[in-house]
Amino acid sequence: MALLDILLYPDPRLRKQAKIVEVVDQKITQLVDDMAETMYNAPGIGLAATQVNVHKRVIVMDVSEHKNQLMVFINPVIEEETGDTEAEEGCLSVPGVVAPVRRAESVVIGALDREGRPFKLEAYELLSVCVQHEIDHLDGKVFVDYLSRLKQNRIRKRLLKEERDSSEIDRHNKVVVY
Ligand code: NI
Predict the structure, then answer these.
(1) Fewer CB within 10 Å, N- or C-terminus of the chain?
(2) Considering only CA atoms, which of 98, 89, 96 is closest in space to residue 158?
(3) What pLDDT, in 10s, does the model give residues 146-155?
(4) How far is the C-alpha of 131 from the C-alpha of 114, rounded, in Å?
(5) Residues of the chain with pLDDT under 70
(6) For residues 35 and 52, is the Cβ–Cβ distance under 8 A?
(7) What pLDDT score was predicted for residue 177?
(8) What CA–CA distance (Å, rounded) separates 123 from 140?
(9) For this UniProt entry, which residues form the secretion signal (predicted)?
């Protein structure tokens, strides 16, 4: 297992469209394991392959209280969505920023698991918000895209300045990061 580097907004590589995984082989399971380790280490509750500069449709998540229920989504597709809701979101690629985003309240997801077996999942609440957030990453979207232009510019300037100052960014001062 290995810790992977997480791309930071506004890195243009976060805009790449991830490709379908054709075969769930040992390379993919290795990626899943490295992504899980990286997510738990950050710490975060979700990570998309795009965020570690691998442009394949792979997501890892763990929204459990004790961080012992790893979920793996390969080639995830939103098959149904119901209602709408607003929740505070954060992101490992946008450290220090939390903002409300409107999304579907619940979704039905079809995907493959770590062994390449298809499954379906009805997701509610945090799980629903998180999986929608991660699928956005695979499509080159970041949650700040939903905010006003003004807020987006402010966030971009702040993160670019932090990068320039090469100051240590504290990624551990947030409760929930995706
Ligand atoms: Ni994120």
Answers:
(1) N
(2) 96
(3) 999 999 999 9
(4) 16
(5) 166-178
(6) yes
(7) 65
(8) 22
(9) none
Residue spans of the domains in the chain: they are: 10-146
Single-letter residue type at 12: P
Q: How far is the CA of 178 from the centre of ligand 1 (A)?
A: 4
DSSP label at residue 106 = E
Which active-site residues does the annotation give?
Answer: 134
Query: Which conformational region is residue 39 in: left (phi greater than 0), alpha (psi within -120 to 50 degrees), or beta?
Result: alpha
* Ligand 1 centroid, distance to 131 Cα (angstroms): 10
* Tokens (6 digits) for 109: 């997801």
Fold of 10-146: Peptide Deformylase (3.90.45)
Interval between CA 93 and ligand 1 midpoint (Å): 6
Query: What is the predicted pLDDT for the residue at 1?
Result: 78
Please tell me the predicted confidence (pLDDT) of residue 173: 47
**Encoded amino acid at 118, one letter:** P
Q: Ligand 1 centre and the CA of 120: distance in Å?
A: 22
